[in-house]
Task: structure prediction
Amino acid sequence: MLLGRQKELHLLEEQYLDEGINVTVVWGERGIGKTTLLREFARDKNHLYLHPRGMPEGSILMHFSERLHRYGDEITGVCKTWDEFFNRCKSVVPKKKTVIVFDEAERLLKNRDFIDALVKVSKSKDVSVHIVLLADIKMMPEMVEHLRTCRNFREIEVTPLSFKDALLFFTEYKMREKIQAFSVLGGVPIYLSQFDPSLSLEENIYRSFFTKSSILYYSALELMEVYLREPQRYIAVMGAIGNRKRRMTEISEICGLSRPTLSKYLETLRKVGLVERITPVGEEKNAGKRGLYMLPSYYLKFWFGVVHPHLELIEFGEPGELRRLIANKLDEHVKSVFPDICLDFLKEIMGRTRLFGLNPEFGAWWSSTSAIDIALLSENKERVLVGLAKWENEPLTSEELFTLRKNAQSAFKGKTIHYALFSRFGFTKSVIEVAREEHMFLYTLENIERLLTTRTSS
Result:
């Protein structure tokens, strides 16, 4: 199922129309749908798909040479160098432009000979080829700098599906269950496809996360092994952040690591996209001491926050205790990510209206004494939308609204403040009255579902 990838397809098609040899790196986490995207893009084009498939370094050129021969290369011998391989690619492509896709390109890009040969062939003007490299990991800056010397280079990130697009995987669930499912799976298509719509949410979570043979059980550790040379050193750090220890001092204490050592670990995790450092809305991203660390993946948040601390129960096989664990921990987890899901919803809604400009800043705000779940700062910095997202089993009260207003007025002095309130169990009568008088936005789960499934006119 190809959902929510129109932007990426457009960028690929746009570059494909350019003459000569074009080079595109398409990167994103494993299972995000890079290969599915390229399959759709290349469907009606001449194309050659190449995958190293876990082969040792010395066998990759041999395998690719054989694939090239089957595609139409009259030479049967094995290419000795990457220069020879790319030159033979030029000789076999037809007059019509050809797409050559290299999967697991992060392996190839570690080889400087491969990069140099690719840059060299990209200068050719006598053939028309679109070379696409699929990579699981964002390339290091020095690698990007080498590739930027290609004649026509572009980098495309494939990000997780939005909440709106992910809802299409859960058509049988009620909105509460859709939010719960998204909170543990996130927007990675391969994770979303693991749930069986004929089973209850709780049964899907048990089978997918708490049985050793399931993809969602072992994928987290597999990700660590793929992205990191010594994953065990980083698991404790990820576990601490997954259990909502988000400040440097807290993580350092839990993991027993010195700040200099921890800083190196966190920087490595940031480079490969497993950890993100966030700052309050309105502050410089790399400045200030109020930065917090988080796991940007909902799947990893759930895995490290709920699954990882109970690996012994899974290994030993304790289904009764594990099912009780799901019942006790699921809503606690959803509560922690519900503000982020509401923020995703606001991005969709505000993208339709442009009320806060083309590029507003989305996030949260906090200080040492107070916090605001949701903050959206307008492009001109003059207006801000602040929000509160409540998942507990009771309506949002006037006391909670009062606290939000007090914090917002302190945090965003001199700005025009708007309010958006989200609540799983609705709002008290007094909140509804204030919201009506002051034009605040109120959203229940039903409102969110209706607005997300409403088709907008073009």
